[in-house]
């Protein structure tokens, strides 16, 4: 496969958001054919989540996109907010996840934990079959999947064979 080029990735909302935020700290930042593969990797690794893309963009004041991608590989605590005036719950991806988890109902927390066994996308029938032990029955699972989608814990992938698939971030 060939590496993505600047023109190939600029139509993605996550790339556009990253570029917009990057220009706030580095006004000359542009996506070039040279950095497009790293920008694409960065946006994909961060699942296109706006807050994490904003965190990553702030680091351009001292790191290249390649260096940010490397730090993503090396640390679960990166990217993080670069300023001390950011609330603790918004400083790292881990603190965001912990805060979201604490806002979930016990059934949603249980479903979230059980769904962690899936490495890729999964359809609702597989979620029900795998995660459907007491006290999570079918209606609770369906409601839980909807709640986790609403909270951006789960992402809905494109329909495959008429079935919606879900994946964890």
Note down, in words, how this protein is organized:
The chain has 169 residues and is mainly α. It contains nine helices and three strands; from the N terminus they run αααααααβααββ. A three-stranded antiparallel sheet has the order 1-3-2. Helix 2 packs parallel to helix 4. It is elongated.
What is the secondary structure topology, with strand pairs?
Blueprint (H helix, E strand, L loop, with lengths): L5 H4 L3 H13 L10 H10 L4 H9 L6 H10 L18 H11 L2 H10 L6 E2 H8 L6 H13 L3 E7 L2 E6 L1
Helix pairs in contact: 2-4, 3-5, 7-9, 8-9
Please supply descriptive tags for the structure shown above:
mainly alpha; three-stranded antiparallel beta sheet; elongated; 9 helices; 3 strands; single chain; 169 residues
Element-level helix/strand string: HHHHHHHEHHEE
Number of E strands: 3
Q: State the strand order across the main sheet.
A: 1-3-2
Helix count?
9
Q: Assign an overall shape.
A: elongated
Question: Helicity, in percent?
Answer: 40-55%
Average pLDDT level: 85
This entry's quaternary arrangement is single chain
In the predicted model, the low-confidence regions spanning at least 5 consecutive residues are none
The SS-based structural class is mainly alpha
Biggest sheet descriptor: 3 strands, antiparallel
Terminal CA distance: 25 Å
Strand residue percentage:
5-15%
Radius of gyration: 18 Å
